[in-house]
Design goal:
- By secondary structure, this protein is mainly alpha-helical.
- 41% of the residues are buried.
């Protein structure tokens, strides 16, 4: 009975799709995060605990997202709340606002919409789509314009890394919109965002976040490959 329940559990089904090298990265985050949580003397203990749990929730979200698995939104919502605490503590106000005012409600909407467009073969996956070149060009034009505008306001309120923060916010808003709409092209923006985030956390000296964002970068590459293949091979209706 217990074995049957586990086999039908949506979370078990979702994590079964992870490949060996993804599990290696997952365990690396678990052990590296635990090491710095126990040895870091520069941050408060509560901060390290929140940061560690946040890192596990975050990578769980992006691992499942790379496989178009809808339970990823549940981990993402938890990650959003915890990451917002970390950002506020580090005075990264732009991304903090993005997390609380945009990512959090988007997580709820995304969970609802993905479960309305499930894959034809696996019940934990959603159907994936691809964008036209016209939409891609428009997407990048909006990112550039919004980044320059937001940087101006972040400088005014004393943000720690205004330009990087502004670009991260702009990329995140557009990428999340297309993520909710199930477009594989969202991962192009996430790749850029991950590079910026890694740079940002190197400047802030947070090893746990550097590790986390580096894994995000690798999974963005895997994600765009997986999503594109799913759209071509399994969801040819692109709907």
């Amino acid at each position: 009975m217990i074995k049957e329940k586990l086999q039908n559990n949506i979370f078990v089904i979702a994590f079964k799709n992870l490949r060996w090298f993804e599990w290696v990265m997952f365990l690396a985050m678990v052990f590296i995060g635990a090491f710095y949580m126990l040895t870091d003397k520069t941050h408060p203990h509560w901060y390290l605990v929140v940061n560690y749990i946040c890192s596990i929730m975050g990578i769980s979200c992006i691992f499942l997202c790379a496989h178009a698995s809808w339970p990823k939104w549940i981990f993402g919502i938890i990650n959003t709340v915890l990451y917002s605490i970390i950002l506020f503590y580090n005075h990264v106000y732009g991304t903090f606002a993005l997390e609380m005012l945009y990512y959090l409600p988007c997580g709820i909407v995304g969970l609802y919409l993905w479960t309305k467009h499930l894959d034809n073969k696996e019940k934990d996956k959603c159907k994936t789509r691809v964008m036209s070149w016209k939409l891609r060009l428009l997407m990048f034009a909006i990112v550039i314009a919004s980044s320059l505008t937001l940087r101006y306001f972040l400088v005014k309120i004393g943000g720690a890394t205004p330009l990087l923060d502004a670009i991260t916010v702009s990329l995140g808003i557009i990428a999340t919109f297309y993520e909710i709409k199930r477009y594989a092209d969202q991962y192009v923006l996430w790749l850029i965002s991950d590079v910026i985030a890694i740079t940002q956390w190197i400047l802030l000296g947070d090893v746990i976040m550097i590790t986390k964002k580096s894994i995000y970068f690798v999974m963005s590459i895997i994600g765009i490959i997986n999503w594109t293949c799913m759209q071509k091979e399994r969801n040819t209706e692109n709907s």
